From TrEMBL:
PANTHER family: HTH-TYPE TRANSCRIPTIONAL REGULATOR BETI, HTH-TYPE TRANSCRIPTIONAL REGULATOR RUTR. This is TetR family transcriptional regulator. Keywords: DNA-binding, Transcription, Transcription regulation. Residues 35-54 bind DNA. It holds the Pfam family TetR_N. PROSITE patterns: HTH_TETR_2. Residues 12-72 form the HTH tetR-type domain. One of its GO terms (molecular function) is transcription cis-regulatory region binding. It comes from the Bacteria. It comes from Nocardia mangyaensis.
């Protein structure tokens, strides 16, 4: 008979596990309706342990928003932009990267819940700061001017909302109005 050894998780691994459970719970129920005991249950830890790790539900939600916005920034920074790309080509590369983010279903939902909960001063401050960083990053990485950056971000938010409604992305419900919008976006981003 072999002995089974149990490997204990490090504090960092346990924290990451709780954060992942929180992203899932907040994506499903939003900030106000999500309870820390539900997050604890999903993570397989006690509710006091969740509080010990993150302090408050607000701090945990802000950590989730940080994770979401950092993921967008990482996707953009890792976009395959050729050194000789013009702005349109660079924006297309960022758009392809954003599709990766949208496919991570919970993350766009948490982003939308963060925007919706921005009346809370702490959440609003965090969302405004991070959204502004993402907006500025688009221009920095692509050379886009204000109008190009605004259009890119606006299209990204439209796709985020459509993905949340399940009319864009994988397993999308096909509706004529959504298809019209998606076809128009595709045509606008095709190389000339």
């Amino acid at each position: 008979m072999g002995e089974t050894t149990r490997t204990r998780m490090t504090a960092a691994e346990r924290s990451a596990q709780v954060l992942e459970a929180a992203v899932e719970a907040f994506a499903e129920s939003g900030y106000a309706a999500t309870k820390t005991d539900e997050i604890a249950r999903r993570a397989g830890v006690s509710q006091p342990y969740v509080i010990r790790l993150f302090g408050t539900k607000l701090q945990l939600f802000l950590a989730c928003l940080h994770e979401v916005c950092s993921r967008i920034e990482t996707v953009f920074r890792n976009a395959e932009i050729a050194p000789d790309s013009d702005t349109a080509e660079a924006l297309r590369a960022l758009g392809i990267g954003y599709e990766t983010f949208l496919a991570e279903r919970e993350l766009p939902l948490v982003l939308l819940h963060g925007a919706a909960a921005s009346a809370d001063p702490a959440i609003g401050e965090h969302m405004r700061e991070r959204f502004g960083r993402i907006y500025r990053l688009v221009g920095e990485l692509t050379g886009a001017d204000t109008e190009q950056s605004r259009r890119f971000v606006a299209t990204g938010m439209l796709l985020t909302i459509m993905t949340a409604m399940q009319v864009a992305g994988t397993d999308a419900i096909s509706l004529p109005w959504a298809t019209e919008i998606l076809d128009d976006i595709a045509a606008a981003t095709e190389p000339c």
